[in-house]
Specification:
With 204 residues, the chain is an alpha+beta fold. It folds into 2 domains: 65 residues, Arc Repressor Mutant, subunit A; 103 residues, Glutaredoxin (3-Layer(aba) Sandwich), CATH 3.40.30. 42% of the residues lie in helices and 10% in strands. The chain is built from 8 helices and 5 strands, in the order ααααβααββββαα. It has a 5-stranded mixed β-sheet. The chain is elongated. It starts with 15 loop residues before the first helix and ends in a 10-residue tail after the last helix. 33% of the residues are buried. The structure holds FE2/S2 (inorganic) cluster. The site of FE2/S2 (inorganic) cluster has 11 residues, from helix 5.
């Protein structure tokens, strides 16, 4: 019979982020002067989201520990940015802009086609294979290139049926090749991420 007054041993801190992305963490922190490592919080949160699958309490605590921040500060950052997801979501999150300027260029009418291509029933849903989540987005600052979407951190402009199908096929190939366990799609160089994805222009 355990002693009810006994203090349970402290759980070891989660280290899933550090085990998955040690090099990326070091590179992100190195961008800032010594003592200013907290400036890398967005980078680390995005990496943590990939390592944990979503932003969990453990992810927040690990980011805070690595950057010597208060977890409450880190949680405040999470709440401010729509790219950080506390709920389960697809490996690739598609933010498809349906704001007015894009709608005037046909983005609204193209939305059902986008959902169909990614295999989701509608905006706000995730494909049954867990690969894709499609969300409607407000202006993503590429109004002149609509229809356009942001897949994780990469932009894809001037979408057409053909281009969309090429992007979906390329993303599925990346996932099938095991790249789902690498750094989050779009992290780092956008131009590098676009390599190997046909009919896609990196943002200028
Ligand atoms: S309104 Fe769609 S990118 Fe600006």
């Amino acid at each position: 019979m355990p002693d009810p007054a006994a203090v349970p041993p402290a759980l070891p801190p989660a280290d899933r982020l550090q085990r998955a992305f040690a090099a990326e963490i070091a590179a992100a922190v190195a961008k800032y002067p010594a003592g200013r490592q907290a400036s890398a919080v967005l980078d680390l949160l995005y990496l943590a989201q990939a390592a944990y699958g979503r932003i969990t309490t453990e992810a927040i605590e690990e980011v805070a520990a690595v950057l010597e921040m208060d977890p409450t500060q880190v949680r405040g950052v999470v709440g401010f940015y729509s790219l950080f997801k506390e709920e389960p979501h697809g490996r690739f999150v598609i933010h498809y802009c349906t704001d007015l300027p894009c709608a005037l260029r046909g983005a609204d009418a193209f939305l059902p086609r986008v959902c169909r291509a990614f295999g989701v029933p509608g905006p706000g849903e995730t494909s049954p294979d867990g690969l894709f989540s499609v969300e409607e987005a407000m202006c993503l600052a590429a109004c002149d290139r609509a229809p356009m979407m942001q897949v994780n951190l990469s932009y894809f402009h001037d979408l057409t049926d053909e281009r969309l199908d090429g992007i979906v096929a390329a993303l599925k190939a990346k996932a099938a090749a095991g790249e789902a366990v690498g750094p989050p799609f779009g992290f780092g160089s956008v131009r590098g991420v676009a390599e190997g994805v046909p009919s896609v222009e990196a943002p200028s």
